[in-house]
Every structure is written in C-alpha cells, then in structure tokens.
Batch of 2 targets.
Target 1
Amino acid sequence: MVGEGILKGLAETARNFFGSYVGKDRLTTIQYPEERLPQIEATRSFPFLVFDGQDAQQGLRCVACQICEKECPPKCILIKKSADKKPDAVGKPQFYPAIFDIDISVCMSCQICVEVCPFDAIKMDVDYNLSSDDRFGGLMLHKEQLAKSNQYYNEIHPTEATAVDTFFAEERAKAEAKVKAAAEAKAAAEAKAAADAKAAAEAEKAAPAAQEQPVGGETK
Amino acid sequence: MTPSLDQIFVVAKQTILGHVPAAAQPLASAVLSVIPILVIFPLLFAITTVLERKGLGRIQNRYGPNRTGPAGFFQPVADGIKSLTKEDIVPLSADQAVHFLAPVLLAAASFLGYAVLPIGRNMVIMNMNAGVLFFFAVGSVVELAVFMAGWSSRSKYSLLGAMRAIAQMISYEVPLVLASVVVIMQAGSLSTVAIVEKQAGYTGIFPHWFVFTPWGIVGFVLFMIAATAESNRSPFDLPEGESEIIAGYYIEYSGFKFALFFLGEYLGMFATSGMAITLFLGGWSAPFSFLQWIPSYVWFFAKLLALIAGFIWIRGTLPRLRMDQLMALAWEFILPTAILNMLVAGVWRFMPAGIVRWLVCAVILAVPCALLAQGLKKKKKFQVRTYQFAE
C-alpha cells in the first residue's frame, strides 16, 4: 500500500516518544553533574604523586630522580631537585622535589611517567572535572595539588595499589631481614671479636705470668 | 456559549477605541489589531522551538533541552540572548543592502499573512473579500526574500540553497493553491471569514468541517504536504540541507539576522497551518456542538498546536528527500491528484446530498490515486549502471 512505510515510521517514532516517558531504560543519556557512570578500573586522566603517611609533603614517595621528566613525550613535567635531604615516610633521608609541576594542558595522559617511575611515586588519577576559567594557572598543577594519599590511590585503582603495597611490604620485610641479619652478623662478629679479645687478653694475662717465671727465674 | 468570554478581546478593543478621537480611530484600530499578532506569534515561535527540541529528543530517546529554567523552558530566552549578542558578520563581497533587507523582508512577509486569518469569532484583522488570494500572494514574497538572501551573500552554498528553495517553493506553490481551490469552489467565496462561517454549522453533534468530505480530506492532506514543503521543513528541507550545502541560503547570516530567518520560517509554518485550519478544519469552530462554550480563539490555537505537533512528528520521522524525488512528488503525484480533487469537488456540488454522494466521490478519488501511485512505483526501476572507462 502507498504510504505504508510512512505510517510504520510514524508509529515507531510515536512509540519512542511515549516510551521514553514510561521506560527510563530507553533513555541512554546520563544527566552528567547529577548522575555519573561508574568508572572502570583502568580509567586514567592525569598523573598525581602518591604520598605515604599523614603529611603530604613529608611522605611523598618521589625522590626527584627526574626520570619521568626526561621520559615525558610532550615535556609537561618540571622537577627541581632539593639541595638537602629530608627523611621520608620510613625515616630514611632522601632527596625530595623542591618543585614538581605538571601542565595538564600539555599532558597527553600517555602514562609513560608511571611506567618508568622506579619508586611507584607517580600514578594516574581518575578525576576529569579539571576545567578552569584560568587558562594558564588553572591548568598548571603544583606539588601541593598533585600530592594525593596512598589511601586515595587504593580507592581509585585497588588492584594496582594492592600490588604496589604488597611489593613495598615485601621489600620492607626483606630490608628489615637484611638489617636484622646484618645486625646479627655484626653482633656475632662483635661477640666473636669480644671473645677473641677476651681470649687474647686472657692469653696475654697468662703469657706474662709464664714468661715472668722463667724471666724472673732467670733474673732471680 | 459564553459570549462575554468569547468576545472579550473584541469588546476590549471597542472600549479602547471609544476613548480615541475619531480622526485617529483607523490608525488606533490597526495598531490594536496588529500588536497582539506581533506579540503572540513570536511567543508561540519561542514555545514551539523548545517544544520541538524536546519532542524531537523524545522521538530519538533523548531528553532534549532540560537545563535552562524549569524543565528547560527558558531555553528560547537563552537562545535569544545568544543570537542578540553574537557578532553580525556581513561578507566583504556581499551586496550589503540586499543582504540586510532579505531577513527583514522575510519576517515582514511572514507576518502579513496573519492579516486575513480569523483566529476567533469576529477576530480577524482584515476581512478581505479576496482573503485567500491575498494570503497566497503574500506567501510568495517569501521566495523573493529567500532568493535575495542567497544571491546577495555571494557564496556558492547560499546560491545553491536559494536555487533549491526557489525550485521547491514554486513547485509546491501550485499544489498548495490547487488544494485550496476546492474549498473556494464549495464555499463560493475567497473571504476567510465566509469560509469559516460556512463550516460553523452542526449536524447532530458533528461539525460541517470540509475535512469530513472526500475532497476535503484529500485536499487537507495535499495542502499539508505542500505546506511542509513551502515552509522548508523536513522531509522537504533541501534548501538548508545541513549534510549537503551546510545551511543553504542563510549560511552567510549570523546573530540576529539568522534568528530572523528562523523566526520567518516558523511564522510561515504557523500561517500556513492557520490557513489549513481556516480552509479545512473549521477555523475557530468547536469540534463538537456541546463544546461550543469554550471560547473560539482557544479552539483555533488548540488546532494550531495540534498541527504543529504533527509537523514535529513528521520531522522526527522522515528522512530528507532527494531533489528529483521532491520534484516528482510535486508534479507527478500531488498536482494530478489536486486537479482530480477539483473535479470531485464539482461532482459533490451538483449531486444530491447523502451517503451515495459521499461514496461516489470517494471512489472517483481513491481509484485513480491508487492507480497513479502504483504506476509511479512501477516506473521506478533501478538499472545496473555501466561505466565507459572505469571497467
């Protein structure tokens, strides 16, 4: 029949029109600021710096080795190494970044900085609400804005963060074991040295006596 | 029937005119009639844009605009502020005067048609005895404005769009007028007021609208198809086909001039819808005799909104036609059907009233239409294209 296709099309659009008021599953739009899609774990936006402990600046894992700065393809990272050393979260004295800036208007989210970091200090963030009305200053993130806690890292990338934490725990345990072993060895060595010294002293003590006699005898 | 409420605007106008000196009365009368039109229809345009966007959104399973104000209903205000504050760019090589005049002429011509539309009982600006003729004459000024815009912009896309628009609008002007001729034949008058009064009677509870006759329904459908093409709306929006010629004849317009084109287009749509209501849907008369207590202008605007909803529904459903399909539809199908419809209207005029007359007229219309449609369908055969050099 002539016009059958038109009528079919009209019926379909009418079904869409009324159906979209009845069934909410027809509407695929997410009403953005109020509704958000759940993020997948591999989501990434821009890098941030992980810190351990409570103090953000004290606990930064970054030791200002500048590998990420050198590797960054669009050159959006600026690091100035500190002159002095500060104790890190564990208490070990380390260099720290006096300046650590990332220009997110230049960053291309390639994650290479994360790949190359030997200290697991820089990781990818998931926050994408970063628009700013300040074109230059608002998109230049400084150390203070970049520092985010390890708990936050655990929240946004649980699998990855757990692996990193396990690795660190193992390393720490190994280091502690090493220290312990070293201490034990030292203690053993010291004990041995002490014992040797004692024995030597005793021998020395005994020796003059033995010597004295003949000497004394001779002198006598 | 509540005469006081129905005639409230007419009485108000007479009261105001009573306080005006006799010498200034014609001018005051004109101003009092014109200003409501200049306020109401652009307001309706604003409401229609937001309703259209919301409706089209729902048709495509989207929300449509829902951010500005309650449920997005302040969107036209935001759009208006935006288009007013935008830079008004005129191409360097454009014909400055014509480029400026085109949108003004378009908007003015679109407003002129409302002069003869009876939007309520005794509510017409000008009861012309050649009202329908005036309406179509003014409606064709729009084509001039469109071509002025396309030509003066000095852009290829503008010119292509304008040429398409001219071809399309002239082609559809013919069926538009021929489809309304049947009503003029039946009513025996070119006056819009007389045409509406002819349809205002009732048989039982049912009205005497022309759309309830065989030639009326066919005429109405043809008129609406032609009106869609006249107002350059989808599926006949070739003159501004975004995917082909970007925005057609108004591509070189920005800011408020662009908004004027938009306004003119919608005003033209409302005016032709209003004319369709006047000719076929009984103008301001109520659809059932027991609903006559509702004021007449309410009925007119209810019918207008219903037709606009139909336009939006069609726009959300049908894809754009190809140029040859567009022309074939106008000249090969709508034009013969409209002429046949005139013949049927003559038969209707001279046969005795009754069910037999209705059936005879329906058959005279339906059989040739079906045959014509079948024939046109058969004619369309896709051939295997052979290439001279490519193979």
Target 2
Amino acid sequence: MEADERAWVDGLRRGEPAAFDATFAAYKRRIYAYLLRMTRRKDIAEDLLQEAFLRLAQSSRRLADDTRLGPYLFTVAHRLVISWARAQAVRSQLAGDLPAREVAGGERSPLEALADSQQQLALERAFASLAPAYREVALLVGVEGMTPTEVAEILGHRPEAVRQRLARARIQLAAALGDHAPAAWRTP
Amino acid sequence: MTTEEDVKDLGVLSRELPAIDLDATTAERIARRARDDVGKGPSPRRFIEPGIATLVVLGYIAWVIVQVLEAMR
C-alpha cells in the first residue's frame, strides 16, 4: 500500500474530512467511469457514485488499517451495480411489454458522444456490446490494470472463472471490433 | 492465447477508450453530501423501517397467540 493511501485510511479511521476529500479526488473519476460503462446511464452512474462514497464515509471508522481503498471502492461499486441490475430486471418484468428506454437508432449514447475518432467509437461500442459479466472483467483488467486475481477478489469469484470470462470477453471484443481489433486477435 | 496475453492486449486496447470525467459541479455535490457522513456511521433513519416492521409482526403474533388461547378455553 502506498504511503499516501495509508495516511488516507488512517485519516478516514479518525473521521477526518480531509482524508475523505483526498480519497474522493483520487478515485472519483475511476469509479465513475466504471459505473458509467456498466450502467450506460449518466444519472444512474452519478447516483451509484454518491452511494459508494457515502458507504465509505459511513463505514470509515470501521475500516481495517490495511484497507486498500481501490479494491474496497470497486467492490462497493460492483455490489451497487448488481443491486441496480436486479432492480432493473424486476422493473422490466413488472413493465411487461412496455418498450425499454433505449437510445434511438443513429443517436449516440452519452459514452459514444465522448468518442472523438472512429476507433474510439468502435471501441466504446464493442465494450458496450459485451455481456455485463464479461464487460466488467474486461474493464477492471483493461482499464484499471488489475490482475485476474485482484478482480476475482472484487467480484467474489474464483480466479479461474475470471480468466475464463476474460478469454470470452476478448473473443467477443475481437468479433465486435472487426478490423479495429488488435492484429493478434484476428483469426487468420 | 494465454491469460497474460489477454491482459496485455486488453490493456493496450483500453488505453484507446475515450477519457471519462465527472463534471466539477456534480463531483462537488457528491463529495459534500458524503463528506458530512465521514466517521458518523449509518443514519439512524435506516433502522426505522425494519423497526416498524418488527413491531407489526410481533403485534400480529401476539394477537394470534391471544386468539388461540381464547379459543382453547
């Protein structure tokens, strides 16, 4: 654990707002990006980001002194996404045949609007096309640079299951990216 | 492909994703709301609903027991 992070954890355990501010500044963008790519809704991602940091604030005095804030926050964020997805599934069932709220054809989603090249647009669409379980692993490994073992701890799965999801995510991404895929992923 | 190759290639690919950031106003609103709760523990309000539900269930059980006892007399 880095010295800064150790100091933040110590400060959080003492209930110091300055330690919270430092943690928020360091992790807000990463957690928000993860939440936005998982939910694909800006309003939901903001709500879940607030809930994640509220939970950190409310449990700050109970943090273990060796808490690693990154894995802690991503674990909370992962659980919030799962709860949100379950609530969405129930809502969809209750709504019956009502049309789901989707981006109209041709219109760019908030994520796609951030892309400033065809390559970025293709990439964002490819990640969005992945099943959530594969997208999550691909994001945590690819964007966050975590190892499959670290991701397994966050998701509460076996490392082998994460490796399998990673391999499937790569296959699906390669198919979705077509010519934009890395050369090594393209089938000869 | 090995897992190590998957990890490496995904890392290279993900660097091309567009950067995502939170606008400053939203970030400040979220930080201010959460900062107020640092070190305070969960709000007592979260215990009110389970408390009411428990009281209702206990009241119902007590009522059932009374009805059964009266019927047995």
